[in-house]
Each structure stands twice: as structure tokens, then as C-alpha cells.
Amino acid sequence: MNAIKLVTILLGALISFGGTGAMASPDSISIRKQIFQQIDRQPNFGKYDMTVEVYGGQVTLSGEVASNQARALAENIAAHTRGVDTVRNDLQVLPQPSRVEYSAPRPGWRDGRSDPEISAAIRNALLKEGDIDASGLQIESQNGNVTLYGSRSSFRDVDRILSIALMVDGVKHVQSAMTVEGRPYAATQR
């Protein structure tokens, strides 16, 4: 009987002091909400996948943001939020797709092709290769200056696509904004 009383007293004390400590306090929920609301109001913050943990007056920011400016802004917002004493900023900056540029003067360029014709000719050249999947590849051309977008499974695939595009008549310059398995294609060739 004494064991039951002891368990009842301990359980009552645990409930009255806010449970196991795993539940967020109303203040921490409010702080987290305020931080996310302020971030969402920033027009140039960019994409983010962020977690905000609040314990007492300490905020820990973790996850990924689009830029160093967004990382600093998130920390500043958290630091100026009511009820926050300290901020630990563990945010990582997402790698940005790099633009790799290829251009090589070639004799015999035909300047008479329209941009849609150039884009179609690049897609056809890729299809003729047979082992290159051109689906999901976005080709933009402006006055023979081509930018390629999309994701590939290897750097070798990106290199081949860029080389083939550069050899198409009417192409003056090729710029890549492609990714390899979600990572920016950052190699440069001269």
C-alpha cells in the first residue's frame, strides 16, 4: 500500500511540474513560432530546411539554409526574439548550383539558326548518342548562348552533354547550371 501511495505522489508531482521534460513549454513554442514567422516574412531568405530547438532561453538553429546571409539573418532574428538569451547557430549553407561555362570558337558556325532551332538541335544531338537520357533536361538558348539545367547521375554525363551541346551548329557558348545527384556541378574546364 505504501508503494502505491509513493507512485501516486511521484506521478502527481511529475504532472504538476510539466511532465517528463520532453514536452515543450508554452514559452518555447511561442519563441519557435515567432522565429519562423519572422523568417517567413523575409523576402530574400530563400529556401530552408531548419529546426529551431528552444530550451529555457537558449535557441539552437540547425538544418540547411540557402546562403550565408540567410544563416546570419536567422541567427539575428533568433537573438532578437523576446525570451531568447543565447543562440547556437549550427545551420549549414546549401551548396549553390554553379554555372560552368564552355565556349570555344569553331569555324563554320551558322549564325542563322533561331533559339528554338538550336535547342531542338541540341536535344536531337543528345538523342542520337543513344545512351544519353535527355528527359528532364532543360535547354535555354538566347542568341546562340545556351544554358542547360537538370540533374544527372554522374559528372561524366554532364561533361558529355556539355561537349555535345557545344558542337551543335549555331551554339556560341554553353553554360551549365546542372547538378549531379542533387549536388552542384562545380568542375570547370578551359
What would your notes on this structure say?
By secondary structure, the protein is α/β, with parallel strands linked by helices. It folds into two domains: 18-93, Histidine-containing Protein, Chain: A; 100-184, Histidine-containing Protein, Chain: A, CATH 3.30.1340. Helices cover 36% and strands 26% of the residues. The protein has helices spanning 2-16, 26-40, 68-79, 115-129, 155-166; strands at 48-55, 58-65, 86-93, 100-102, 138-142, 145-152, 173-180, 183-184. Strands 4, 5, 6, 7 and 8 form a five-stranded mixed sheet that branches. A three-stranded mixed sheet has the order 1-2-3, covered by helices on one side. α2 (26-40) packs across α3. It starts with a helix and ends in a 6-residue tail after the last strand.
Helix and strand arrangement:
Blueprint: H1 2-16, H2 26-40, E1 48-55, E2 58-65, H3 68-79, E3 86-93, E4 100-102, H4 115-129, E5 138-142, E6 145-152, H5 155-166, E7 173-180, E8 183-184
Parallel strand pairs: 2-3, 6-7
Antiparallel strand pairs: 1-2, 4-7, 5-6, 7-8
